[in-house]
Amino acid sequence: MSAGNDLPCIDFPQWSPENTRMSTPFPNDNGHTVTLAALRRYLLALFLFGLLGLVAELLLVKHTEDAWQWVPLLLILASLLVLGWHAADRRATSLRVFQGTMVLFLLSGVAGILLHYQGRAAFQLESTPTLSGLNLFWEAMQTQTPPALAPGVMIQMGFLGLLYTYRHPVLDDSTRKGTFNQRSMT
Q: Which of 8, 21, 27, 106 has the fewest CB atoms within 10 Å, i.e. the most exposed one?
């Protein structure tokens, strides 16, 4: 018996020009589907847990003084409503609306960082009117209130939500078959 015959044969994924997807080296793809579904559920749980903490913090710091401060809270509410819709009707349309909501999370995070910086810079200019340029930027970024990068959490949550939808079976079926009537297992 040779050493070469004792080792199991492993087939590596192959790429074919006809099909841009790689074929799986495993005879049964069902295990991967189950694993991806579990990971998707964990991502969703992490997303929901993050929203819970974010809502708690926004309400504790009374992030409701003006219209702009309501944007993150309203987006969180919208994402929960869309996820409820998706739980009741697991179709591509609800998931596409969720993706749109996550893009709004990303945009609100960028806008929030800019608004927080403007508030901090204005406060610094009131106390030290001679500040400008890079000195103003550094002074504004080093103050404690409002935290300049805190809205970055909205960006993080937006990416986490988009990661949940990445290659989701509902979207994959609707894209491949051109229909939005396929139901998902997750």
A: 8
